[in-house]
Structure formats: structure tokens, C-alpha cells
Amino acid sequence: LGQVVGLTKPTSELATITEWDLQDPYPHLRRDLSAQHLGLYGADLANALVADHDPHPTAFGALRQLLTELTEPSQYDKAILEFQWCMLDGSGYRPQLDRDVQTDEEIRDQQTYNFDARIGGLTNEAGLTTPDNGRGPWRVRQETVGLLRDLSAGRWQADQLVVRRASRLLCVYARAIIDRQLPTMKFVLDRG
Known about the structure:
Layout: E1 2-8, E2 15-22, H1 28-31, H2 33-49, H3 57-69, H4 76-90, E3 112-116, E4 121-123, E5 138-141, H5 142-153, H6 160-178, H7 186-189
Antiparallel strand pairs: 1-2, 3-4, 3-5
């Protein structure tokens, strides 16, 4: 984290950096490879969801928070889930969890739900596939949907396995939104 002073030209994508002041080097990212991988994923996702030259204080704050929270391995899953939620919400891709994205009916309570990434949320409709082939709707457990609903409300607590499932769901949802696999997505998808 630092402050930069530079000169930009409207006719060029490049800027001339005239001053740089390092404020936080996040040394833990150099000591822990998993933390570094998740930090790289955070940077990749922020880059993919925010347009060039678009000042986005929410994305900046979320990335800064992620990098700060990656100091403690027991908090990695929580940190990456909150980061992904913040990025999706802040860029206008917050998943719809209470109303059917196809019919706008209220979602029925059930043991498993269907998540359609193409439309951006839960649906009562069938036609299931798995997240691996890039199409939806995908089957999602009740605990995962409950966790995302709680996260949306700003209050949540869950078992680490449920947090990882929710994190993987948001990761494949982001992959569907940007229509490509970021090289660093494997660091989230391959976690336990």
C-alpha cells in the first residue's frame, strides 16, 4: 500500500510516476505462499470487475481489508468470502438470494437450491448442471444459501466447510460474469 504521484496524458495509457511513498508492504504475503496466492486472486478479481480509470473506493477498501486479514491462516476463508461478496456487490453483481431470478417469485425453503449464474441468483427452476462445465443452474446446499443471506445482512458465522463452499460458489459466479477463468481462481477453487 502506498501513495503515488504521477502525470497522466489523455492520449496515453501510461503515466509518468514522479513520486512513490510505501506505507504498508504487507510482509506476511512474502512469508506465506497461501496468503500471497489469495492476495493475487484478490488483485485479479478487482482488476476484472472494475473498469480502467474508474475510481472505486469500495473495491480499494475491500482489497486493502483482504490483504490485511491474510495475516492469520485461520481467517483466510472468511477474508476471501467477504472480499468476493464486497466486490460482486460493489460492481453491481450481488446475487439475488430471496427472489427467483427467472420468475421473480419468492424462493421456497428447501434442502438444496438452484443458482443460475447467467441471470445472477437463485431459481426454483430445474435443469441442473455442475459448476465445472460453466453452465447453470447449479445445485447449492441450504447451508451455503443461508450463509450468503446472513453475509448479505452483515451478520454471519459459519463452519469453515460452509464458508469454503460459499467462497467457491462466488468464485465460479465471478468466472461466469467475466466469462473467463482467472489464473488465480484455482487458489480459491482448490481450497479443501
